[in-house]
């Protein structure tokens, strides 16, 4: 059984940086596209960034130029480098594996506040 575990969230001041990690463990038979979503209180979960098995990336407009998604297939890990963080980035961040049966991590809280 495959599990996704996120880490790296926390409290940061506006303009600061955080790096989120999502490690997949278990019997992983293929390299799937991966994504980072976020959900702020009272809002729908939104796709923030995604990366294919070949490394092609997608970003929502609000994070372009500030966030970078990357992956290390040897470590079964996907990362989200977040720079120049803004209060509107405050949310629970989830990673998702776009496998045949999509798999979600448990989420990690990111709070941007002075």
In short:
With 114 residues, the chain is mainly β. 0% of the residues lie in helices and 50% in strands.
Radius of gyration: 13 Å
* Strand content range: over 45%
Note the total helix count.
Answer: 0
What is the molecular shape? globular
Summarize the structure in words.
The structure is a single chain. The protein is an all-beta fold. It is 0% helix and 50% strand. It is built from no helices and eleven strands. The strands form two sheets. Strands 2, 4, 5, 6, 9, 10 and 11 form a seven-stranded mixed β-sheet that branches. Strands 1-3-8-7 form a four-stranded antiparallel β-sheet, with no helix packed on it. A hairpin with a 5-residue loop joins β9 (91-97) and β10. 29% of the residues are buried. The mean pLDDT is 95.
From the structure above, extract its key features.
globular, 4-stranded antiparallel sheet, mainly beta, 114 residues, 11 strands, 7-stranded mixed sheet, single chain
Topology at a glance:
Blueprint: E1 3-7, E2 10-12, E3 18-25, E4 34-39, E5 46-51, E6 57-59, E7 67-72, E8 77-82, E9 91-97, E10 103-104, E11 108-112
Parallel strand pairs: 2-11
Antiparallel strand pairs: 1-3, 3-8, 4-5, 4-9, 5-6, 7-8, 9-10, 9-11
């Amino acid at each position: 059984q495959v599990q996704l575990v996120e880490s790296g969230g926390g409290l940061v001041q506006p303009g600061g940086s955080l790096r989120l990690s999502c490690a997949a463990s278990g019997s992983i038979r293929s390299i799937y596209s991966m994504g980072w979503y976020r959900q702020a209180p009272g809002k729908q979960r939104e796709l923030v960034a995604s990366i294919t098995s070949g490394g092609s990336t997608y970003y929502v407009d609000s994070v372009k130029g500030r966030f970078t998604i990357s992956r290390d297939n040897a470590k079964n890990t996907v990362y989200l480098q977040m720079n120049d963080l803004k209060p509107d980035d405050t949310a629970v961040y989830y990673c998702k594996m776009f496998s045949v049966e999509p798999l979600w991590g448990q989420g990690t809280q990111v709070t941007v506040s002075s």
